[in-house]
Write a structure and sequence with these properties.
alpha/beta, Alpha-Beta Plaits, Rossmann fold, Glucose Oxidase, domain 1, 4 domains, seven-stranded mixed beta sheet, 20 helices, 42 strands, 27% strand, serine protease, protease
């Protein structure tokens, strides 16, 4: 055998023998599903969030059966029948799935998947973070807060479970000092871990529980307990940020570098925060840890589960997206009456990039609200150039001389950085720079390399510069810049054309010798202040980065009859709590607040607002809560202009197009309308089972094995699911779609139905008007008939509006792809 062949053979053997973490679902119902039937084991389906002896007895039984399966498997698969079983079990899952996480070789995983007691085996994969003005932008003080007794009672006794990077318990957003005392909650049974960096008392009533999950991360070999903290402490900042957005205290001053940026508040400032740390700074997280965190959160009794995370890439495999282990677990969380809110992902503006798939999850896209931090640069020729940077103005009314980084160089450069990045003070002549505004370049080194704005500050301060003027390498680079707090006068000209205007002005007024060396600097400018927010009053736009639909039903990217995302919430430049020890974002090292963007930031807005709805309607199902938010979301601004979606333009300013349901779902969150929707659409666990059974590519055996429930004898269609949207991925001929609405108002109301038909689709509705009664008459079925009038390869969109005579109004978006007429 040649050396190359030997190496290949040895590598293949190592791959076969190397053990990695797998999640295994096994036969038998988890706690939230089990209705009884086993000798001596009473049903636990209605006791999922209660710490009872019955639940403990059943979870002990499940653990024993899991261990017996593993013991028998390893005895059978061992080459030496007398050897003892050898395996490492990381987690037992009990409450929302019945299974475990275990280390296996690829060969063992394949063999175990064939065991009759095993439902599904899925290899671990990594997940990532889907990374003060908004309470007022969403009109909470005069709306839902006022109706719930003000911010002092908003979200009272509701527990939001956050699966994230942990929490900084010392942050004022989570302090119980000066707050109305938090009493005990008998419905919540989570514990509070104690560690040197997370001392006793960290759980103070506001923070009601805190745990960490890192077994899979540890087995992967990337977990360092000292660096990442084997405790609930947030070493990143992301978890504290999302927690403060959902349920941070009201009226906490946001101060960065000594500058006051306003008072911050969570959406539900009296809600409790339950921390389940499963993501870690720098490394992200692993799905077995995430599922363990979700399993524990449901067992503990959270009301809302907020997941600002998603897979790094689709997990893959032949199983449907709806039956991957995380989504099965979240289905059973919903069975336990827990509303699950998940980030759509940051893969936009490209199609089919959502990483939250199932109809029982409310998937959140990110919107850009009306706040900006504009700044200006006034040149010596009176030209005013717009830009941005949260920086103070230059001192006094006078102008300062400009000098470019290239003209300020001394000696040889550094191979790691181009001089115009302004990363090393040693590259420049201090005597030339001192007292001048230095021109640097925002290049792709700041986006993909190691350059940072913090280092620019260090460089300019060491040189005694009067301030920073930063031009952009290109419009694409400019579109990636987000304003950050800056300690010295500065501005970033994010438009490439304006950058050229500045550089042309500088060039004309700079005198050079015969060798091209600058000897006299005549260009001058002054910087305006960029620390004052501007509020335009405009409606939200779908952020460029926000992931888009259509949803997929499998990992071959076949489209699903489900709309994703479901709703849009503010997710661009959001102020939130930060931890000073966070190192993932170099611009906020040492700070207690950060202004960052992502669908991660949008998700806790929805989680917090859902807590307010849950407080008012404690008996509503997760589907009912989601319906109230989705159907009352805004599709137009106050002027009647359709919401816009940002698209790639090739310039620093995104192209704007009318947003479709694949961009924004039902629209931009309007929580005050959601508080009183009039009518809702509801669905329960059996409805979701029927949906799974009717989805092509999913077999009844897969459904029963994954959920413990049988498919009905008569299968309907996947589009029959009673959700507040109509999505058909392949309309052939005519499709009849039922929806049932439920009146939740104390009075009967007469509704009129109007609609805008999608292109190439004829829509009829029966009835076109109805009276929503009360009591036994509160349900009303509506039948939509959709007929393709022309085959098409492009999805078309429509909208159904229900308008009540008492003022209520809800909307249901339509998304149709006509592949053929028959």
């Amino acid at each position: 055998m040649t050396l190359n062949k030997v190496k290949f053979h040895n590598d293949a053997m190592l791959m076969t023998l190397r053990r990695e973490v797998y999640m295994v679902l096994v036969v038998g119902e988890p706690v939230v599903v089990y209705k009884g039937g086993l000798p001596g084991l009473t049903g636990t389906a209605e006791l999922a969030v209660n710490a009872t002896d019955l639940v403990h007895k059943y979870t002990t039984y499940l653990t024993r059966k899991q261990d017996e399966l593993l013991d028998n498997f390893f005895k059978k698969s061992s080459s030496n029948s007398s050897s003892r079983p050898s395996y490492t079990k990381l987690y037992s899952y009990h409450h929302i799935v019945n299974g475990f996480a275990v280390e296996l070789t690829a060969e063992e995983a394949d063999l175990l998947a064939k065991d009759p007691g095993v439902v599904q085996v899925q290899k671990s994969y990594r997940v990532q973070k889907a990374t003060v003005h908004t309470p007022y932008y969403l009109q909470l003080p005069q709306g839902i807060w006022a109706q719930e007794g003000g911010y002092l009672g908003a979200g009272e006794n509701i527990v939001i479970g956050l699966v994230d990077t942990g929490i900084d318990p010392t942050h004022p957003s989570f302090s119980s000092m000066g707050q109305k005392p938090y009493g005990p909650l008998t419905s919540y049974h989570g514990k509070c871990e104690v560690a040197p960096e997370f001392p006793l008392g960290s759980c103070n009533g506001k923070i009601i529980g805190a745990q960490h999950f890192a077994a899979a991360a540890s087995k992967d070999g990337v977990f360092n307990a000292t660096l990442y903290f084997a405790s609930p402490l947030d070493g990143d900042g992301h978890g504290s940020h999302t927690a403060s957005t959902a349920a941070g205290n009201h009226g906490v001053p946001v101060i960065v570098n000594g500058v006051f940026y306003g008072n911050a508040s969570g959406m539900a400032p009296r809600a409790r925060i339950a921390v389940y740390k499963a993501l870690y700074r720098l490394i992200g997280g692993f799905i077995p840890d995430v599922i363990a965190a979700c399993d524990q959160a449901v067992a503990d009794g959270v009301d809302i589960l907020s997941l600002s995370l998603g897979p790094n890439s689709p997990p893959g495999g032949s199983i449907s997206t709806f039956l991957n282990i995380l989504d099965v677990a979240l289905l059973n969380a919903v069975k336990a009456s827990v509303l699950v809110v998940q980030a759509a992902g940051n893969g936009g503006p490209y199609d089919q990039t959502v990483t939250s798939f199932s109809p029982w999850i409310i998937t959140v896209g990110a919107g850009v609200d009306d706040r900006s931090y504009p700044n200006t640069l006034t040149l010596g020729n009176t030209t005013v150039l717009p830009g941005t940077l949260l920086a103070p103005p230059t001192k006094g009314p006078f102008l300062y001389n400009l000098i470019s980084a290239n003209d300020a160089m001394q000696g040889q450069g550094n191979p790691l950085y181009t001089p115009s990045d302004c990363q090393l003070a040693s590259l420049f002549n201090k005597l030339l720079v001192q007292g001048k505004l230095m021109i640097c370049t925002y290049s792709f080194n700041f986006i993909f390399g190691g350059a940072s704005m913090q280092q620019v500050v260090s460089t300019l301060e060491a040189l005694g510069a009067a301030g920073l003027v930063m031009v952009v390498e290109s419009d694409v680079a400019g579109s990636k810049f987000d304003p950050i707090p800056f300690t010295m006068p500065g501005i970033v000209i994010i438009d490439a054309m304006n950058s050229e205007v500045l550089l042309d002005y500088y060039s004309k007024l700079t005198t050079r010798d015969a060798n091209g060396i600058a000897v006299q600097f005549g260009a001058q400018a002054k910087i305006g202040g960029g620390q004052i927010a501007n509020y335009s009053g405009q409606a939200q736009q779908v952020a460029l980065f926000s992931s888009r639909g259509p949803d997929i039903k499998d990992f071959n990217f076949n489209q699903a009859d489900i709309l994703k995302p479901n709703v849009l919430a503010p997710g661009y430049l959001i102020w939130g709590a930060w931890t000073p020890i966070g190192i993932d974002n170099p611009n906020y090292i040492g700070q207690r607040w950060a202004m960052i963007s992502g669908t991660s930031m949008a998700t806790p807005h929805v989680a917090g607002l859902a807590a307010l709805l849950k407080e008012k309607y404690p008996l509503w199902s997760p589907a009912a809560l989601a319906s109230a938010m989705v159907t009352t979301a805004d599709v137009q601004d106050s002027r009647g202009v359709p919401l816009q979606a940002q698209e790639v333009s090739g310039g620093s300013t995104p192209l704007l197009q009318n947003a479709t349901p694949f961009d924004m779902g039902g629209g931009a969150l309007n929580v005050n309308a959601a508080l009183n929707p009039g009518i809702i659409l509801d669905a329960g666990i059996q409805d979701y089972i029927n949906f799974l059974c009717a989805t092509s590519g999913i077999t009844p055996r897969q459904v029963s094995a994954s959920t413990g429930r049988l498919c009905p004898k008569t299968l309907g269609r996947s589009t029959d699911l009673n959700i507040p949207s109509i999505t058909i991925s392949n309309l052939q001929g005519t499709r009849v779609i039922p929806r049932t609405v439920k009146n939740i108002s104390p009075k009967p109301e007469t509704y009129t139905i109007t609609w805008i038909s999608p292109a190439d689709v004829a829509v009829t509705v029966k009835p076109t008007s109805f009276t929503a009664g009360i009591g036994q008459l509160q349900l009303q079925q509506i039948t939509f008939t959709l007929r393709a009038t022309r085959a098409s390869t492009a999805t078309s969109f429509g909208l159904v509006t229900f308008t009540g005579h008492l003022g209520h109004s809800i909307r249901i978006p339509i998304s149709i792809l006509n592949k053929s007429l028959t």
